[in-house]
Amino acid sequence: MQKQTTFKCWNCIRTFKYSLEITDQQTLVVKCPHCQSQAVADLSAYPRKKVVLRSASDTEQVIEEYQLPEILPTQKSGQNQQI
Ligand SMILES: [Zn+2]
What we know:
This protein has 83 residues and is an all-beta fold. The chain is 0% helix and 52% strand. The protein contains no helices and eight strands.
């Protein structure tokens, strides 16, 4: 599922948007378009909510969606990296 998320760069403090495929992975690695730093967002700190998706063929799919803040803070990459 594609979801547009706003990140805040740990390095230059500016924000940028990315459309990301949100899956079960708990760590997102993005690159800041302003200062080219690699930024890591840890999603495991945020609660998840079950969402029911109904497709055209009337089958239901339950996914878990992270309840993310409007602006997602990031950290410097390199520690606790899981990818
Ligand atoms: Zn930056």
